[in-house]
Amino acid sequence: MNRKRMDGTDLVLSEICYGTALFGADVCGAAVDTCIRTFRDAGGNFFDTAHGYAYWVAAGAGCSERALGDYMRRNGKGDIIVGTKGGLPAARGYRQTEHWLSPETLESDLSESLERLGVDTIDLYWLHRDDTRLPVGEIVETMNRQIRRGRIRYIGTSNWRTDRIAAANAYASAHGLQGFVANQPQWNLAKFNTPNPDPATDTSDGKAVLYLEEPDLAWHRRTRLPLVPYSASAGGYFATGGARAGESYENPVSRGRLERAQALARELGKTPGQVALAWLMNQDIQVFPIVGPRDPNHLREDLGAADIRLTRDHVARLAGDM
Asked: At residue 57, what are phi and psi to the nearest 5 degrees?
């Protein structure tokens, strides 16, 4: 697996990011080492975790960061690039706050993440959700105070609308501050069934999970802001022929894309799941998809997508654009 520098940063990242949401919960002990070693042996160095990961499991909050931190304490950080997230709204089993992007909450989230991971600086710190009650300038100022303290190298967004990212980066540029260097939305080759909430009527204050839609992708192409999408494998939709899709992805658009991925996989001697991941990696902008298999064999299969080079016609055909 190759590595490349993320545009606008000095971070040299593996083409695929390893999501560790259930490390320390469903993946424990020696199994964590096996999974990380499998990823590292393939050239992987980019890991994704979060302050709130696994809060939905009994006593799980923070276990992902602790498991990754334990691995680095025993084996050394080396060239590992850690991305973690803070600023998740309150939830049952998680810390309670009405202001998840306040300076105080982010200070607490970041301090705990640094301690759990056993590092002095987070390479890439994502804001897990937006809080649309706050002006973007306040949020940018909060994050840049942490950057000046040396606790964060770069900042990114997760589940933010592109108009808010654009406004935040415009503020940063106008005030000589660091803006967001990447976006982490939900995105894959399938079509998500539930549309994003209408920002004009949404009352969630930015709590919603957002799926990358065509206007968002067009904005990313204009701005060249890199993407690090989660749910990149569509929950196994392409690997299982849609069998695990439930209500999330099964629809005529997704079914057509699945059939085209299956046909191209036969042509290339690959699997449909690998082709679907390769579709993300062969866009005309930088995309570092996040995968999160807990089985080393499944992880090796996903990593095989890095060997696939698709043409523009392939990319367009898979999406149904030709």
From this structure: -100, 145
Q: Which range marks the domain in which residue 186 is found?
A: 3-319
pLDDT for 65 beyond 70: yes
Given a contact cutoff of 8 angstroms between Cβ atoms, the answer to whether 18 and 47 are in contact is: yes
- Each residue's pLDDT tens digit, 10-24: 999 999 999 999 999
Q: Which of 131, 70, 80 lies closest to 102 in space, CA to CA?
A: 131
- Supply angle C-alpha 78, 285, 124, rounded to 5: 35
237-264: per-residue pLDDT in tens?
999 888 766 678 999 999 999 999 999 9
CB 18 within 8 A of CB 48: yes
Alpha-carbon torsion (301, 306, 309, 315), positive or negative = positive
Q: What is d(CA 45, CA 244) in angstroms, rounded to the nearest whole number?
A: 29
For 106-126, what is the mean pLDDT?
98
CATH of the domain at 96: 3.20.20.100
Q: Which residue reads 């490349």 in tokens?
A: 4
Domain count along the chain: 1
Phi, psi of 48 (to 5 degrees): -120, 130
pLDDT tens-digit readout, 194-238: 889 988 888 899 999 999 999 999 999 999 999 999 999 999 999
The full 3-state SS of the chain, as one line of letters, equals CCEEECCCCCCEEECCEEECCCECCCECCHHHHHHHHHHHHCCCCEEECCCCCCCCCCCCCCHHHHHHHHHHHHHCCCCCEEEEEECCCCCCCCCCCCCCCCHHHHHHHHHHHHHHHCCCCEEEEEECCCCCCCCHHHHHHHHHHHHHCCCEEEEEEECCCHHHHHHHHHHHHHCCCCCEEEEECECCCCCCCCCCCCCCCCCCCCCCCCECCHHHHHHHHHHCCCECCECCCHHHCCCCCCCCCHHHHCCHHHHHHHHHHHHHHHHHCCCHHHHHHHHHHCCCCCECCEECCCCHHHHHHHHHHHHCCCCHHHHHHHHCCC
